[in-house]
Design goal:
By secondary structure, this protein is of the alpha+beta class. It contains four helices and eight strands. The longest helix has 11 residues.
Protein backbone atom coordinates (compact mmCIF):
# COMPACT_ATOMS: atom_id res chain seq x y z
CA UNK A 1 0.00 0.00 0.00
CA UNK A 2 1.18 3.47 -0.80
CA UNK A 3 0.83 6.21 1.81
CA UNK A 4 1.20 9.96 1.48
CA UNK A 5 3.98 10.22 4.05
CA UNK A 6 3.45 13.97 4.41
CA UNK A 7 -0.06 13.29 5.76
CA UNK A 8 1.00 11.27 8.83
CA UNK A 9 -0.33 12.91 12.00
CA UNK A 10 2.41 13.58 14.54
CA UNK A 11 3.36 12.75 17.17
CA UNK A 12 3.21 9.06 16.38
CA UNK A 13 1.83 6.94 19.22
CA UNK A 14 4.35 5.18 21.42
CA UNK A 15 3.93 1.60 22.59
CA UNK A 16 2.92 2.97 25.99
CA UNK A 17 0.20 5.20 24.52
CA UNK A 18 -1.15 2.31 22.42
CA UNK A 19 -1.18 0.02 25.48
CA UNK A 20 -3.05 2.67 27.48
CA UNK A 21 -5.70 2.92 24.75
CA UNK A 22 -6.03 -0.86 24.59
CA UNK A 23 -6.84 -0.79 28.30
CA UNK A 24 -9.38 1.99 27.82
CA UNK A 25 -11.01 0.17 24.90
CA UNK A 26 -10.62 -3.24 26.63
CA UNK A 27 -9.17 -4.92 23.54
CA UNK A 28 -5.83 -6.26 22.41
CA UNK A 29 -5.01 -4.73 19.06
CA UNK A 30 -3.50 -7.06 16.46
CA UNK A 31 0.29 -6.70 16.25
CA UNK A 32 0.03 -5.82 12.54
CA UNK A 33 -2.30 -2.94 13.34
CA UNK A 34 -0.09 -1.67 16.19
CA UNK A 35 2.89 -1.70 13.83
CA UNK A 36 0.86 0.06 11.14
CA UNK A 37 -0.49 2.85 13.36
CA UNK A 38 2.89 3.46 14.98
CA UNK A 39 4.22 4.40 11.52
CA UNK A 40 1.16 5.60 9.59
CA UNK A 41 -1.09 7.24 12.20
CA UNK A 42 -3.65 9.43 10.49
CA UNK A 43 -2.12 8.94 7.06
CA UNK A 44 -3.90 9.45 3.77
CA UNK A 45 -3.47 6.36 1.59
CA UNK A 46 -2.60 6.79 -2.08
CA UNK A 47 -3.86 3.25 -2.70
CA UNK A 48 -7.26 4.09 -1.27
CA UNK A 49 -9.99 1.89 -2.77
CA UNK A 50 -11.11 -1.19 -0.89
CA UNK A 51 -13.77 -3.63 -2.10
CA UNK A 52 -16.14 -5.22 0.42
CA UNK A 53 -19.13 -7.29 -0.67
CA UNK A 54 -18.74 -6.13 -4.29
CA UNK A 55 -18.93 -2.48 -3.20
CA UNK A 56 -15.97 -0.12 -3.53
CA UNK A 57 -15.16 2.23 -0.64
CA UNK A 58 -12.67 5.10 -0.73
CA UNK A 59 -10.45 5.47 2.32
CA UNK A 60 -10.10 9.19 3.06
CA UNK A 61 -7.70 8.87 5.97
CA UNK A 62 -6.60 6.37 8.58
CA UNK A 63 -7.37 7.40 12.14
CA UNK A 64 -4.67 8.12 14.69
CA UNK A 65 -4.03 7.80 18.41
CA UNK A 66 -3.07 11.09 20.02
CA UNK A 67 -1.97 11.42 23.62
CA UNK A 68 -3.09 15.06 23.73
CA UNK A 69 -5.89 16.05 21.33
CA UNK A 70 -6.10 19.63 22.59
CA UNK A 71 -2.80 20.57 20.99
CA UNK A 72 -3.44 19.07 17.55
CA UNK A 73 -5.36 20.68 14.67
CA UNK A 74 -6.11 17.21 13.23
CA UNK A 75 -7.58 15.80 16.46
CA UNK A 76 -10.85 15.08 14.64
CA UNK A 77 -9.04 12.00 13.24
CA UNK A 78 -8.18 10.63 16.67
CA UNK A 79 -9.91 7.32 17.40
CA UNK A 80 -11.16 8.50 20.80
CA UNK A 81 -12.63 11.67 19.28
CA UNK A 82 -14.46 9.60 16.65
CA UNK A 83 -15.64 7.13 19.30
CA UNK A 84 -17.04 9.97 21.43
CA UNK A 85 -19.25 10.97 18.50
CA UNK A 86 -20.57 7.56 17.39
CA UNK A 87 -19.95 4.97 20.11
CA UNK A 88 -23.61 4.41 21.00
CA UNK A 89 -24.21 3.44 17.35
CA UNK A 90 -21.30 0.96 17.24
CA UNK A 91 -22.83 -1.70 19.49
CA UNK A 92 -26.10 -3.44 20.21
CA UNK A 93 -25.03 -4.13 23.82
CA UNK A 94 -26.09 -1.31 26.14
CA UNK A 95 -24.03 -2.84 28.99
CA UNK A 96 -20.80 -3.00 26.96
CA UNK A 97 -17.66 -1.71 28.65
CA UNK A 98 -14.98 -1.05 26.05
CA UNK A 99 -15.52 -1.49 22.31
CA UNK A 100 -16.67 -4.17 19.88
CA UNK A 101 -16.20 -2.09 16.72
CA UNK A 102 -13.14 0.14 16.67
CA UNK A 103 -13.00 2.74 13.87
CA UNK A 104 -9.59 2.77 12.16
CA UNK A 105 -10.21 4.80 8.98
CA UNK A 106 -12.70 7.33 7.68
CA UNK A 107 -14.35 6.47 4.39
CA UNK A 108 -15.78 8.82 1.79
CA UNK A 109 -19.39 9.54 2.69
CA UNK A 110 -19.13 9.30 6.48
CA UNK A 111 -18.71 5.54 6.98
CA UNK A 112 -15.81 4.03 8.89
CA UNK A 113 -13.53 1.07 8.38
CA UNK A 114 -13.51 -0.81 11.70
CA UNK A 115 -11.82 -3.63 13.53
CA UNK A 116 -14.59 -5.99 14.70
CA UNK A 117 -13.82 -7.68 18.04
CA UNK A 118 -17.33 -9.05 18.57
CA UNK A 119 -16.76 -12.58 17.22
CA UNK A 120 -13.03 -12.91 17.89
CA UNK A 121 -11.33 -10.79 20.56
CA UNK A 122 -7.87 -12.09 19.62
CA UNK A 123 -8.07 -11.64 15.86
CA UNK A 124 -10.63 -9.00 14.85
CA UNK A 125 -12.05 -8.93 11.37
CA UNK A 126 -12.17 -5.73 9.30
CA UNK A 127 -15.24 -4.24 7.70
CA UNK A 128 -17.40 -1.19 7.12
CA UNK A 129 -19.70 0.48 9.62
CA UNK A 130 -22.48 2.32 7.81
CA UNK A 131 -23.22 5.65 9.47
CA UNK A 132 -26.47 6.44 7.68
CA UNK A 133 -28.01 3.04 8.44
CA UNK A 134 -26.88 2.73 12.08
CA UNK A 135 -28.88 3.93 15.05
CA UNK A 136 -28.33 3.86 18.80
CA UNK A 137 -27.79 0.19 19.76
CA UNK A 138 -28.47 -0.81 16.13
CA UNK A 139 -25.16 -0.84 14.23
CA UNK A 140 -25.00 -1.84 10.57
CA UNK A 141 -21.66 -3.45 9.81
CA UNK A 142 -20.41 -5.45 6.84
CA UNK A 143 -17.43 -7.74 7.30
CA UNK A 144 -14.92 -7.65 4.51
CA UNK A 145 -11.66 -9.23 5.68
CA UNK A 146 -10.84 -11.96 8.16
CA UNK A 147 -8.13 -9.81 9.78
CA UNK A 148 -6.03 -6.68 9.41
CA UNK A 149 -3.30 -8.53 7.48
CA UNK A 150 -5.79 -9.62 4.83
CA UNK A 151 -7.09 -6.04 4.60
CA UNK A 152 -3.56 -4.67 4.05
CA UNK A 153 -2.88 -7.31 1.39
CA UNK A 154 -6.02 -6.20 -0.47
CA UNK A 155 -4.57 -2.70 -0.82
CA UNK A 156 -1.34 -3.95 -2.39
CA UNK A 157 -2.88 -6.25 -5.01
Amino acid sequence: MKIDETSVILPLPTKEVIKKEEGYWRVSLPSEYKEFISINAGAVPITNVVTINSHEYVIERFLCILEDCKQNDLAMYDIDVVLSQIEERLTDNEDLVGVELLPIASLLGGDFLCLDFKDNEDNPSVGVWKHDESYELEPVFFKGFSDFKEFLRSLTE
